[in-house]
Amino acid sequence: MIAETGLAALWLAAGLAALQLILGIAALRTEFAAERAMRGIAVVQGVLTLLAFAMLLIVFARTDLSVALVFENSHSAKPFIYKVAGAWGNHEGSMLLWVTVLSASGAFLALLSRRIGESTLTAALGAQAALALGFYAFLLVASNPFARLDPAPIEGRGLNPLLQDPGLAFHPPTLYLGYVGLSVAFSLAVGALLTRQVDSRLGRAMRPWVLAAWIMLTLGITAGSYWAYYELGWGGWWFWDPVENASLMPWLAATALLHSINVLAARGALKAWTMMLAVIAFSMSMVGTFLVRSGVLTSVHAFAIDPERGTFLLALLAIYVGAAFTLFALRGATLKEGAPFELVSRESGLVINNLLLSVILAIVFLGTLYPLFVEAISGEKLSVGAPYFNAVAGPLALLLAVLVGVGPLLAWRRERRAILPKLRVPALLGITALVVTIVLAPGIAILPRLALGVAAFLGAAAILPLVGRNPLRAPPETWGMVVAHVGIAVALAGMAANAAFTTERLAVARLGEALDVGPWVVRLESVAPTAGANWTAIEAQLRASRGAAPIVLKPQTRYFSDPPTETNEAAIQTFWNGQLYTVVGKPDPSGAWQLRLWWKPFVTLIWLGGAIIALGGAIALFGRALRAWRARRKREPNWRERYI
Amino acid sequence: MKPKNQRLILVAAALFAVVAAALLAMWGLREQASYFFTPADIAAGKASEGKAMRLGGMVQAHSIQRQGDGLTIRFVVTDGKATTPVVYRGIVPDLFREGSGAVAEGRLQNGTFMADTILAKHDERYMPPELGNLSAEHKAGGTLER
């Protein structure tokens, strides 16, 4: 019954989405007052998909093997948390999560939106319903998560062991909240273009949605990066894998949108540009979904290969993106540009930020899709990896990071003062960092060296907006910006330090033998079998010392029987100045063991920086919300009686 | 600045960015993309020495030889028509075996493929996509592991 309840809820939600879309069209074409009804429908729709998702969690938690999806992806002997998280560790479940976030976003838009006009809101809710409808259809027709098996098998096939990790519980939901949360910006942009009400009010209404989605996306990408880093045992934190790029592309677009939307909200300018970015951001989410879920690429995360699904998703992508761009082409040129600005101004700075982010986005996009195009056209197979992305996008990202230090110092509309003198201290720091690396580490590559200098510059320059004023009186969004920009400097420093100073040691060691890696001496003490709930393992015991008290690391090779797989469990020890990363390989015939050791100075700054960037976003989001709430309470002292 | 001029400048800047991105990407792709070859392609002389590429095929039975250092292995990759010898130093992926599929990334040097990384079938269900045509038992699903 549980699976059937979930399926029924989905069908019902799809029906409501169709109704919501019809009401939206009616409201747009006539004077029909649909706002209240549409808000109600959107909320119910959100509740129904949440119910369907809850049903999926229940069948997974109970390992109900009569549900085909559970049989394919679960096993009764799996730890409970992976039974539950396994619900979205597969194609159908993850698409259900996607759709749930989509309609929950629509429900929140219906519940919370008070700032925009009625007609724009109904048009936006109509657009959100149109999006939801397509993806409900995809779920119900091509990816039903609740399909039954009769008779029920006695045991499931198990979950891919690489996914049996706490990362699975956190990474996909956060990523999807960000990815799919951008649908609200898309719908608001489509709604505003339809009603021709693109103004600063729309900018202010759209901003918290973009910011919230962007925060989740930042957290999701950061968490995914750390997960891949420790789980795969390859010692890398970003592989330029197409699936990673699929999450990076919406982030780049959302970051650009986050900045241009401030120009729209504050100055009423960059209207067409901001609408375009809002459309592109969610389009990138859909492109990402297509890449990952259609099985068109096969990589670390792509679990499914099914041409039917691919065609379906491609059709949805073409319809939505095509419709949005057609609308943009028809209406974009008729938008009146808002307040003008001079060449040297905050607005110009944000335009340059947007252009650089867009160029980086295009480079990632082309690099990710090029192999698919070539294969489709000529049948030739090729791959595009880190050498391309680092060489082409890396220098642009560094240039952008430099400008991040400059842009916030510019005044709106027109900058009359000279701002370069303010940057004296940061520039001095950056140059000092460069000189120090040239003297102390002459052998490192040019890009990491420059990145270290830029990180030092930006770390200081990012704080300047708080200098020369009482920092406690600075508005929360200024604090948020400063924190996020410092986060970029921190992450950049981590990436550069990892690229420049990592030492790797690959060797065969006998029991008792010691190996050097960086400042460490690592001794192989013993190798012994061990076991967990659903795996057995060979575990090496390593004792690492650097003068003072030694520490013990226990890397493993794990063997899973359902499905039959081996995984490497790296043992990682974190210190304030870096991580010691150890992997054990195979024994050679003489009984010695392969060991792979890395000393990675300051690598943790990468993820710390990502978390700081998200924190900055959260400060701006909640700070603004708090201020708006206070203002409303002041304006309407009796609001409590009216709403509660 | 007049609003009309401002819009023109913005459009010009956006166009410039698009063209710049496309040119940069084309340059980068021409320099850095690595093509996929089978042993038959290499035998036919399609692959040039020293350029980054990927080699795919089945690991020939009884061809894996461990070298004295315990880390370097030599093996032969075949696609049924031709064979290519491969040298790799490092920890091989978990399911790298004789008789199963593998993709190696690296460069060709005097007819021997010097592999930097080896991608192999990760679990019982998965095989690198390029090997789809080489094996009748190729089935969908799974993940790729280095």
UniProtKB/TrEMBL annotation, chain A:
It holds the Pfam family Cytochrom_C_asm. Residues 314-624 form the Cytochrome c-type biogenesis protein CcmF C-terminal domain. Keywords: Cell inner membrane, Cell membrane, Cytochrome c-type biogenesis, Lyase, Membrane, Transmembrane, Transmembrane helix. The chain crosses the membrane at residues 6-28, 40-61, 95-112, 124-143, 176-196, 208-228, 248-265, 272-292, 312-330, 351-373, 388-411, 423-444, 450-467, 479-501, 605-626. GO terms for molecular function: lyase activity. Residues 88-294 form the Cytochrome c assembly protein domain. It is a multi-pass membrane protein. InterPro entries: CcmF_C, Cyt_c_assembly, Cyt_c_biogenesis, Cyt_c_biogenesis_CcmF. It comes from the Bacteria. Belongs to the CcmF/CycK/Ccl1/NrfE/CcsA family. Required for the biogenesis of c-type cytochromes. Possible subunit of a heme lyase. This is Heme lyase CcmF/NrfE family subunit. It comes from Sphingomonas hankyongi.
UniProtKB/TrEMBL annotation, chain B:
Heme binds at residues 122, 126. It is a single-pass type II membrane protein. InterPro entries: CcmE, CcmE-like_sf, NA-bd_OB-fold. Residues 1-7 are cytoplasmic. Residues 29-146 are extracellular. Its main location: membrane. PANTHER family: CYTOCHROME C-TYPE BIOGENESIS PROTEIN CCME HOMOLOG, MITOCHONDRIAL. Heme chaperone required for the biogenesis of c-type cytochromes. Transiently binds heme delivered by CcmC and transfers the heme to apo-cytochromes in a process facilitated by CcmF and CcmH. This is Cytochrome c-type biogenesis protein CcmE. The gene is ccmE.
